[in-house]
Amino acid sequence: MQRSRLDHYLLDNPSLQRRYKKIKKHVNRLIISGYDITNRCNLRCKGCYFFEGERSSNFNDDRTLDEFDAFFASEVKRGVTMPHFAGAEPAKVPERLALAAKYWNRGVIYTNGTLPIAPDLPFMLHISLWGAEETDARLRGKHAFRSALDNFSRDARAVFIFTINRQNIGEMAEVTDICAQHGTKLSFNHYSPTRWYGSSGTEMPNEIRFRGKGRFSGPDDQLALRLEDLNIIRGHIRELLIRYPDTLIYSSYYNERINSPDVLFNIDSQTGVATNCAILNSAHHREYRTDLTWDDADCCIPNTDCATCRHYVANYSKIMGEFHNHLDSIDQFDRWLEVYETWCKLNIRNWDTLD
Length: 355
Ligand code: SF4
Ligand code: SF4
Known about the structure:
The protein has two domains: 1-30 and 322-355, no CATH class; 32-307, Aldolase class I (TIM Barrel). Helix content is 38%, strand content 10%. It is built from 13 helices and seven strands. The chain has helices spanning 5-12, 14-27, 65-78, 94-103, 133-140, 144-152, 172-182, 206-211, 227-243, 252-258, 278-281, 312-320, 330-347, and strands at 32-36, 82-86, 108-111, 124-129, 158-164, 185-190, 287-288. A seven-stranded parallel β-sheet has the order 6-5-4-3-2-1-7, with helices on one face. β2, α4 (94-103) and β3 form a beta-alpha-beta unit. The radius of gyration is 20 Å and the shape is globular. It binds iron/sulfur cluster (2 copies).
């Protein structure tokens, strides 16, 4: 029987084979879907995509626990094995999270880290972070980083996700060092503007503008990254990966790809929506809003502009879906595998100690 290129790579390189097999073993049957489980939040962050647009905070949040119970059961039946809980702030509804844990033993909670989350929940915690202490407090209206460190720095489920924006690029090293001193893991996300970015909400219906109050970024308060920022970010991450290998969860290849000056997705010129977004095109992925409805046109990052989307969830998924484009050489395959492994470290509990 003729061997495929992949077979050759794996047979010639036992370490590559072990890493690939581990992924096949633990990730093959993961079916991911996303759930906004509340539209309440205790912060008022500038540039928050949830409150900046009609595809997220505009839905009722009045479902009962019994309705959530039946809904989660139906999602398990539909085949979902890895839920991603977001919102606004999921920690505002601990009873809904506790219910979810009856149905799943894997998943991710996207949280701002300022409120407690039950230690027995079996989900990874991605804790949003907007810069070193002062910048974080200025952009979020509260010392969120400090509270999150107090709450979660010793929690093995936690990864701090520093969203890089124009105002905090110079703080990447300082924040990585703080995380290293606290023994907590860190990764980076790129700030990705919404379609209404910079409008200050004035063109929006009143009820949306009201909910977003204090969260819109005006023209004098820019967070959006410029092309020249991407080069600087790439350089910082290269350095930090060398200095903080035990703290930073990041992929070198992803660093090159995400900081490319190109538009990262193919965009439909009529709709402005990405035609090759792995999340949007996934057969099983649905993004449920707080009223438990969903729409085919929604990704997990509501209101975001596909043309400037550098969000880590979307871009890891995109590269992971490019398996066949990375088989021309063993080096290319190794790079693809490194991105996949990094995703596993971010999304699967205790990845490093699994067989
Ligand atoms: S970005 Fe800030 S305001 Fe928006 S949901 Fe997250 S914590 Fe709340
Ligand atoms: S995740 Fe996909 S659909 Fe959503 S904004 Fe990004 S590119 Fe567009």
